[in-house]
Amino acid sequence: KNRPIYREFRNDLGKLTFNSKPIINSLSKKAEVNVDDAESVLRAIEDHLRFTVPKYKLPAFYLLDSIAKNVGGMYVSLLHGRLTKLFIDMWRSVDDMVKSKMERTMGTWRNGFDGGKRNLFPEFVLRKIEEDISRLKARAKETAKMVPESTSDDLLDNLTGMQSYAKKRALEEKHQSAQREVVARADSYNGSAHHQRQHEQGNGHHKRQRTPDKIKGVFNHDLLQQINAMIMKKKVEMLRRPNDTHLFAVHDALKEYKAIVLEAELPPERAREFRDQLAVLDNIQSSGLPGSGN
Fold first, then answer.
1. pTM of the model
2. CB 152, CB 232: distance < 8 Å
3. Cystine design at 266: which of 14, 174, 249, 271 (Cβ 3.0–4.6 Å)?
4. Residues 173-212: pLDDT tens digits?
5. Using CA atoms, how far apart are residues 223 and 162, in angstroms rounded to an integer?
6. For residue 18, what is the DSSP state?
7. Tens-digit pLDDT profile for residues 98-154
8. How far apart are the first and last CA of the chain?
9. Residue 173, number of CB atoms within 10 A of its CB
10. 3-class SS of residue 113
11. What is the DSSP letter of 207?
């Protein structure tokens, strides 16, 4: 890939923190100018969607939609084989309101071109996304019935009552910054662990074990119990230290992981990666650094 173009787009995407039509139009034109490096542009958007916090993902998704519709060509062709994974990975990580907006945008990709005669993307791609969404929604409902919601939400309500509106507004900026730091650190740890496992497998040090069918369904349940216990623990700590923005950030990250686990049955390797991430989050001190002791 063209690293200068990749880095330039990654930097530009960092400024896209809300649904700004001028910024989206400007970046769409920039993508058109750099169509010969379409792979680098798309990789920058994919990595941004993967590593940025959920609240900033929708504007980047709208940028991808704009590039596909207004530039098309090579960008649409390159997206054929990666759109399903990109869409579903993001869909799993955002809240219901953003999910709904993503689905509405996907609706514009069908029969919206050449006078209603052509889809933006092939029908089989759109159908696969729709089938995956339907399956994940059904599984989330089934899993939610098995694992009751934590009753500790009342603790957070009490915390809200203890803090004044002015103090919460003053903490908001620190909270957002800490959340980005926590999620990025956990993602970085997970990426390093995954790279190490791949290296070991490539050198023949590790052979993947096949998991018996009879135990495949337990991973989500165990993970959800672990996440719920951590959420309860963090909420109690938040009551004791209401000014610790890193506690709020860890709490939000745990809720995001819980949403992902609720929506899909994770294979053993993915469940192991989640446990690695949870270990990092549980070890984050008030300084925001794992095991810092500060």
1. 0.52
2. yes
3. 271
4. 555 555 556 555 555 555 555 555 555 555 554 444 444 4
5. 31
6. S
7. 999 999 999 999 876 766 678 999 999 999 999 999 999 998 888 766 655 554 455
8. 40
9. 10
10. strand
11. -
